[in-house]
Specification:
CATH superfamily: ATPase, nucleotide binding domain
Order of helices and strands: EEEEEHHE
Strand order of the largest sheet: 3-2-1-6
CATH architecture: 2-Layer Sandwich
Number of helices: 2
CATH class: Alpha Beta
Distance between the termini: 29 Å
Oligomer: single chain
Number of strands: 6
Length: 86
C-alpha cells in the first residue's frame, strides 16, 4: 500500500509518496515562479489557483512516472494547504 501527499505552498507544490511503513518512495517539488504572484498590499500576495493545479500536475506526473508500478496500489491521497487561504 502506498500513500501520496500534496503540500501546496506559496513557493512550491510538493509531492511525497510513502509506503505503509513510512518509507519515502518519492519526494518531488514544482516551483511556483514569483512572477506569477500578484502583490495586492503590504506583504500580501495573491496567486491564481490554476497555477497551483499546474504545479501539482507536474509534480505528480514526475513522481508517478518514476514509480508507476508501485503507485498502482495507492490507498490514500492527502492534500494540504495553509488554513487561511482555504
Amino acid at each position: 500500500m502506498y500513500f501520496i501527499g500534496l503540500d501546496i505552498g506559496t513557493q512550491s507544490v510538493r509531492v511525497l509518496i510513502t509506503d505503509e511503513s513510512g518509507g519515502i518512495i518519492a519526494n518531488v517539488s514544482a516551483i511556483i515562479e514569483d512572477s506569477l504572484s500578484l502583490k495586492i498590499g503590504n506583504d500580501i500576495f495573491e496567486q491564481n489557483p490554476l497555477i497551483w493545479w499546474d504545479c501539482a500536475k507536474k509534480a505528480l506526473k514526475k513522481s508517478i512516472n518514476t514509480f508507476i508500478k508501485k503507485i498502482l496500489f495507492t490507498s490514500c491521497i492527502s492534500i494540504c494547504n495553509r488554513w487561511h487561504s482555504i
